[in-house]
Amino acid sequence: MSKNFKYGFVDMHCHVIPAVDDGSKSMEMSLNMLRIAYENNIRTIIATPHNKIYVKSVSPKGIHKRVMQLQEEADKAGIDIKIYPGNELYYDETLPQRLEEGNALPMGESSDILVEFNPSDEYSYISEGLRRLAYEGWDPILAHCERYECFYKDKSRIDEIIDGGVRLQINSDSVMMGMFNPVGRFVRKLLSQEKISFVGTDAHRDTGSRIPDMLDCANYIRKKYGEDYAREILYANAMDLIK
């Protein structure tokens, strides 16, 4: 563990499985991503490859198989990170059926699902989609909630979907954008009101801006918003998904 934290973080949004989507391109890249994650005090990852109806997506069986392969390679390389299967689910009207038929994965063994929309989608479409998923018995987590333009137009809409049982995930790099950036300002306001339930890296690479870095973000959250809230959104809530 990092000397500053008594627990290892859980990255519950990460495109670390090699050659299944626009994330890691190879096993070598995946292992490099895991090394970076470990340096950032990440000890658990839920791998969340994209699942989209109009793009060829790896099957749930294929995800489980590839997670096992990646875990074996990580163990051989001495990288002490546990990896679990999940999906980042792009919403369309077929998603409830895909979930019901086992063609898309929840997070771990839970009923929680990580759901994304197009950033320009109207609020009515996003809220109705989330409501429909909840009606079907799923517990939606809105992926990188800071990306959706409709919430900037009317910030009370965030409260509406939270009141409907939706939990919010933000990306770690968004926290570090700062108050002069509208995304950073929005994210920090949500954190100050304790409306965020999960932090993920949404990492896709082992270099550049989309690496699995969480430590700077975690230090900022703990310093600014307190130890208890930091532990909740960096560790405890995500561990509940896989327990």
TrEMBL record:
Keyword Hydrolase: yes
Keywords for this protein: Hydrolase, Protein phosphatase
The EC number(s) this enzyme carries: 3.1.3.48
Keyword Hydrolase annotated: yes
InterPro entries, alphabetized: Caps_polysacc_synth_CpsB/CapC, Pol/histidinol_Pase-like
One MF term in the entry's GO annotations: manganese ion binding
Reactions it catalyzes: O-phospho-L-tyrosyl-[protein] + H2O = L-tyrosyl-[protein] + phosphate
Enzyme class: hydrolase
One Pfam family matching this protein: CpsB_CapC
Family: Belongs to the metallo-dependent hydrolases superfamily. CpsB/CapC family.
Annotated protein name in UniProt: protein-tyrosine-phosphatase
